[in-house]
Amino acid sequence: MSKLGTCTGGLPSERIRRANLGRVLQAIHLRGSISRSELATQLALSPATASRAVHTLLELGYVQELKPEEREEAGRRKTPISIDGEHNMVLSVHIGILRTTIGLVSMTGEVAEKQTLDLRPDGALEAVKILLEKYVIEDQASSRIRGIGIATEVHTQADAGRLASMHEPISPRAAKAEISRHFPAYLVEAATIPTAAALAEFWLTQSPRPRTLLYLYVAALAGVALLIDGSPSLTGQPIAGSIDHIQVPEPTGMPCHCGRPACFAATAGNLGLIAKANSLINKRQPFSSLKEVLDAAAESPQLLALLNQRARNIAYVAGVLADIFGSEALIIGGDAAALVPEYLQAALAPHLRITTPSHRTAGPVSISPIDRDGPVLGPAALIIAKVLQDPACVHMTPTEQTSTA
Ligand SMILES: [Zn+2]
User: Fold this and answer.
1) What is the domain-level CATH number for residue 359?
2) pLDDT tens-digit profile of 262-305?
3) Total structural domains in the chain?
4) Which residues are in the CB-under-5-Å shell of ion ligand 1?
5) Residues 221 and 95 in one domain
6) What is the whole-number distance in angstroms between the Cα of residue 240 and the centre of ligand 1?
7) For the sheet containing 111-117, what is the strand order?
8) What span, in angstroms and rounded, lies between the C-alpha atoms of 55 and 310?
9) CA 288, CA 299: separation in Å to the nearest integer?
10) CA distance 269 to 255
């Protein structure tokens, strides 16, 4: 059986077999339940190939056979195959600037447990390890947990800049190293929140799935993720920084740590907006949340103008990036998108008419509906996406790994 780290390269026939395994698992995941013969037809595989893939997936423990359907017409009864959600869970950790969320999510995206803690990044990692320990100990008999996904709000320590200077931010790389060291038997993946949330949209909600998906995440800070065929592109590379730091036309006056005055990451996030609102309105009790600014905007033309200004900045960045990448779908997520959809919708319209002769710009634009569980689903999707793309290579159980260590 394949182990972690043994799945690169290989003979062409082996690579094809693994690719088919991923396609079959994805089809089962998308359809909920599907028979072997339906899989063969849908994926244009021979019945033998489809059956062999299902057999391997059963062995790996990702899928289960349901009770055969009673059918009216004569012939063999079809046995539906579905994902074994109960035995394929992912631990999810979201370390935000203001709070930390921990959850337990099934491979099909059901949130089994979720707790939000008032932990800031500087104290989160130690507390997270203690909480994860509890799940891991409970899991030891059943081996349900496939991995631990972690999303952090910043890319590097420098990204947090002065916006989060009161807290020690955690980069995905540092969080992954620390959790991997502490839980060596588990698959651990980490990324920034925009990338994690984009993966959740693609693998857990999008149907049909767009080949290119552009995702703008607007929460405490703002960020951008680009997925091609369900895999993150332009992340983990220096260029990801420059995408997040695209210059907006109407900066709100919150300078970025990179030294430029109009970065999307700094000026479009909630922290930037709140700081600007506080500089505009002299209140005895300064604004501390987006919700407070929104409430006050009902009676303040200045704040209303500020909200619209930010929406235009977000829309501008969406339009420019959608045009550059010719993305098939554009999603705006994060709590800002959930709280102020009306500002964004109005601001988006003119910018998404930008077209070039060679390709169309973003077709469907949506404001993400999954924000409520986004902090839990995003990190979980880091593991789920890996499993669905190459099930043979990420398959492992804690016992297997210890026995080979
Ligand atoms: Zn910048």
Assistant:
1) 3.30.420.40
2) 888 888 888 888 888 998 988 788 998 899 999 999 999 999 99
3) 3
4) 245, 256, 258, 263
5) no
6) 11
7) 111-117, 100-106, 89-95, 145-152, 187-192
8) 52
9) 18
10) 12
